[in-house]
């Protein structure tokens, strides 16, 4: 009996040990598998560079030959001939960046320029590092929006609006066919309370309904510790053709956008930044549809045509946009708890005005005859004006404009 008892307990012990070893092996296999997956993803994203530039902010900018860029991983772009210039460029009401005396704002470029430039026929790409991918919840989710959330001022369901914790302060137009949009936006470095939150200022070119098949092209500046690993303000783009589900990504983190410009890198830090009561720095962004080829082009500032999203990426936007939005968005990551102190824009309310508040000026749309013009019937929208607010106006120099933003948590926004 005693022997039998010993052998049973030995058996159990053996089983126990075997289980421990097995789970350790599994864990090791799991991390090995993850490491391999991350490695493979990095190899897919980071194309061989002709030259690499170390930026003062820690980024590495790879100058990649224009025909080796990520876009050409897309099966539909295998035989694509790059369009090196748009066949059409809409003319603006405000060709020169015009600000009144005493309200001087200055042009902005990118931080990595301090250490070099990319040669002709290459495009600058912010190199994705292992840590960038490891910060994402999975390799698949890296570079993509986490929530199906978009500012929907037309929604009649307030619960739906507040659900995702995303908060907006925007101006918008809808009810017509739009072929592009433009704005000049001053650049700030809003404080982010926790790394899974972000703060951005952008324009949205939207097509379709706010359902599962929403098409969106987005561009502006953002601070996103999760995406970039720091609190720097960066130029970004985003696109989706199915309401942020399976298609699209930030910047060049998936195949889609075709870049032609060798001077501006998507996702790279913008420099300098506006100061409260100090000099104001702004960027201009123009996105428009080429009426000949149907591609959506993007221009940064007055001089940099960055590239285009081919029309076939989209359904509704293959024809035109049905809504344009301009403004700010932040994530309030615990919508049921205290309000986040993540700032939008300058972190100050619109009332404070020039030099203190964040603004969009000279907002314009591209109409059906491919002209830039001041939008008619501009609406404004914010979920909680005590946290982040928006105030629009109109004058000679700034055309249609608005101030927006706020501090988030404050006595009126607990
Ligand atoms: C690209 O060209 C090759 C050779 O002409 C052809 O077999 C292939 O189907 C083309 N691919 C696309 C996506 O058009
Ligand atoms: C969102 O939630 C806040 C806090 O519960 C509430 O004050 C606000 O009215 C809501 N906004 C909308 C548009 O329902
Ligand atoms: C970003 O800012 C937050 C506070 O606003 C700070 O706690 C954090 O350390 C900063 N992160 C980096 C990488 O500088």
TrEMBL record:
Residues 160-414 form the Neprosin PEP catalytic domain. Residues 1-27 form the signal peptide. The keyword Cell division does not apply. The keyword Signal applies. Keywords: Signal. Pfam families: Neprosin, Neprosin_AP. It comes from the Eukaryota. This is Uncharacterized protein LOC109713044.
């Amino acid at each position: 009996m005693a022997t039998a008892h010993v052998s049973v307990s030995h058996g159990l012990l053996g089983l126990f040990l075997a289980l421990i070893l097995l789970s350790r092996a599994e864990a090791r296999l799991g991390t090995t598998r993850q490491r391999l997956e991350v490695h493979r993803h990095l190899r897919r994203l980071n194309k061989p560079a002709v030259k690499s530039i170390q930026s003062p902010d820690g980024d590495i900018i790879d100058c990649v030959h224009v025909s080796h860029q990520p876009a050409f991983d897309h099966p539909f772009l295998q035989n694509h001939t790059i369009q090196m210039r748009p066949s059409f460029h809409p003319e603006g009401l405000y060709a020169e960046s015009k600000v009144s005396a005493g309200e001087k704002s200055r042009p902005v470029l990118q931080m990595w320029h301090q250490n070099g430039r990319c040669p002709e026929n290459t495009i600058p790409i912010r190199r994705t590092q292992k840590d960038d991918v490891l910060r994402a919840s999975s390799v698949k989710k890296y570079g993509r929006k986490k929530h199906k959330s978009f500012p929907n001022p037309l929604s009649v369901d307030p619960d739906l609006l507040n659900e995702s914790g995303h908060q907006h302060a925007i101006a918008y137009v809808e009810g017509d066919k739009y072929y592009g949009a433009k704005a000049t936006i001053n650049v700030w470095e809003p404080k982010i309370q926790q790394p899974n939150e972000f703060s951005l200022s952008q324009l949205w070119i939207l097509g379709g309904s706010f359902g599962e098949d929403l098409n969106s092209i987005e561009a502006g500046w953002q601070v996103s510790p999760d995406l970039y690993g720091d609190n720097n303000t960066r130029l970004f783009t985003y696109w989706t053709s199915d309401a942020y589900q399976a298609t699209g990504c930030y910047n060049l983190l998936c195949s889609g956008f075709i870049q032609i410009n060798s001077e501006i890198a998507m996702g790279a830090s913008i420099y300098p930044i506006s100061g409260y009561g100090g000099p104001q720095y702004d960027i201009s962004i123009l996105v428009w549809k080429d009426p000949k080829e149907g591609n959506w082009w993007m221009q940064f500032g007055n001089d940099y045509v960055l590239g285009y999203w081919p029309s076939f990426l989209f359904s509704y936007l293959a024809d035109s946009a049905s809504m344009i939005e301009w403004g700010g968005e932040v994530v309030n990551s615990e919508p049921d708890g205290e309000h986040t102190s993540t700032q939008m824009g300058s972190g100050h309310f619109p009332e404070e005005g020039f030099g203190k508040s964040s603004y969009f000026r000279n907002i314009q749309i591209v109409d059906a005859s491919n002209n830039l013009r001041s939008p008619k019937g501009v609406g404004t929208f914010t979920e909680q004006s005590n946290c982040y607010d928006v105030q629009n106006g109109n004058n000679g120099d700034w055309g249609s404009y608005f101030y927006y933003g706020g501090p988030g948590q404050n006595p009126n926004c607990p």
